[in-house]
Amino acid sequence: MEEVVVLIVGAGPAGLATAACLSQLSIPYVIVERESCSASLWRNRAYDRLKLHLAKEFCELPHMSYPLDAPTYIPKNQFVKYLDDYIERFNIQPKYLTVVESSTYDNDGKFWSVMVRDMTRCVVVNYMAKFLVVASGENSAVNIPMFRGQETFPGVAIHSSSYKSGGSYSGRNVLVIGSGNSGMEIAYDLATHGANTSLVIRSPIHVMTKELIWLGMTLAHHLPLNIVDHLLVMMADFVFGNLSKHGIMRPKKGPLVLKLETGRSAVIDVGTVGLIKKGTIKVQGRVTKIKGKTIEFQGGNEASFDAIVFATGYKSTATMWLKNCESMLNSDGLPNKKFPNHWKGENGLYCAGLARMGLACIAMDAKNIANDIKSNLDSMSMSG
Ligand SMILES: Cc1cc2nc3c(=O)[nH]c(=O)nc-3n(C[C@H](O)[C@H](O)[C@H](O)COP(=O)(O)OP(=O)(O)OC[C@H]3O[C@@H](n4cnc5c(N)ncnc54)[C@H](O)[C@@H]3O)c2cc1C
Ligand SMILES: *[C@@H]1O[C@H](CO)[C@@H](O)[C@H](O)[C@H]1NC(C)=O
Ligand SMILES: *[C@@H]1O[C@H](CO)[C@@H](O)[C@H](O)[C@H]1NC(C)=O
């Protein structure tokens, strides 16, 4: 048994930001991470050409800016370097290869009892934590739907988190399933590496440019979201034209409102739309059936494929190990209160990075959590 004031689960950007904010307030904490490194999503589960989708001013963690000469859209490796510098600056020492297996609230003792497996020493440690911060990520496990006949597909089928580059797919027929930012960008990467690429777009999406998103996020500080959305859609239609004949429909709600209400992001075009318009990338409706190499789509189209990339997203796994969290998380392991009240549960339970609002929100969560813990500790020490 080990007593700690704060236990942070996960050493991705959210856990690191929370650790930094706590140390600025001289609050002791322990941070545990199941992988052998911090930010494994960025180091090991992201494709080569990935850059931050948002301009750097929206992607800073608390108390440390990017170097002045950093580009507006930070490439993956530079973001990882920033995190390494961040870890050093705030002397964060995650316990790596340490998996949280279960956690319950002890009502008598008023602490969180957290069972943690230390895989290097092959022991289980029981932490008693006054405060518990869930920073295990919205991307903790891959989400892969099962299609009828999927087991008969003889080719390579991978999740986008295992995709690095299109180099090895040249000349092959590849299907990308999913049209979020990852799916759209991976389709572009495949096509530019000479793969015969098709893309499944099931639901309506907002396609934007990164400049439009920057403008929208900047204007949103001064104007109501629905007005900014209206402006964004008008400008996007001007830039891209009406994409419905290419199989890309717009949602009824505007891009910023949709993000706030559902967490679904607008897609930031990296050149995919141009290739769709040229016919280089072929758009298909949802998959109805897989039979060997042949994949059938809604509307009756079918084609033969050598490989599938599932860009079908991720899920949170917090509810698999965290009990007594109903005050904060729903059964999907995501906050049940709406932004900006999502980060706090009862009995010293918090979450950072689960609001589906990116790094800017992660920075806010971390600051809110550290300040809230500080005021709790202050009032405890006054009353005791
Ligand atoms: C391809 C891609 C591009 C993105 N681009 C952007 C962008 O440009 N801008 C932006 O703002 N956001 C972006 N995001 C969103 C992204 O989710 C955040 O940027 C960020 O990585 C989330 O940080 P996090 O710390 O919440 O989660 P993660 O980075 O997923 O970290 C969570 C950590 O918790 C660990 N963990 C999980 N379960 C346990 C357990 N039981 N025990 C111990 N450790 C555990 C995991 O191993 C992981 O290291 C992108 C996401 C993806 C997938
Ligand atoms: C490319 O893919 C499409 C369908 O997705 C298919 O009709 C076409 O024959 C393929 N081209 C080649 C050269 O294989
Ligand atoms: C886009 O084109 C489709 C038909 O191709 C049409 O039904 C729709 O109204 C158009 N949308 C706009 C905003 O012009």
Map the helices and strands.
Layout: E1 2-9, H1 13-24, E2 29-32, H2 40-44, H3 76-89, E3 98-106, E4 111-118, E5 123-134, E6 141-142, E7 156-159, E8 173-177, H4 181-192, E9 196-200, E10 207-208, H5 210-219, H6 225-240, H7 255-262, E11 267-268, H8 272-278, E12 281-284, E13 287-291, E14 294-297, E15 302-304, E16 307-310, E17 314-315, H9 318-321, E18 349-351, H10 358-383
Parallel strand pairs: 1-2, 1-5, 5-18, 7-16, 8-9, 8-16, 9-12, 10-11
Antiparallel strand pairs: 3-4, 4-5, 6-17, 13-14, 14-15
The structure holds flavin-adenine dinucleotide and 2-acetamido-2-deoxy-beta-D-glucopyranose (NAG) (2 copies).
One 2-acetamido-2-deoxy-beta-D-glucopyranose is lined by residues 173, 196, 198, 282, 303.
Shape by Cα distribution: globular
| Total number of strands | 18
In angstroms, what is the radius of gyration? 22 Å
Mean pLDDT: 97
How many domains is the backbone divided into?
A: 2
DSSP summary: helix tally: 10
Please, what is the oligomeric state? single chain
Percent in helix: 25-40%
CATH superfamily of the largest domain: FAD/NAD(P)-binding domain
Which small molecules are bound? Answer: flavin-adenine dinucleotide, 2-acetamido-2-deoxy-beta-D-glucopyranose
Question: Would you identify the regions where 5 or more consecutive residues have pLDDT less than 50?
Answer: none
- Sheet-strand content, in percent, reads 15-25%
The biggest beta sheet is recorded as: 6 strands, mixed
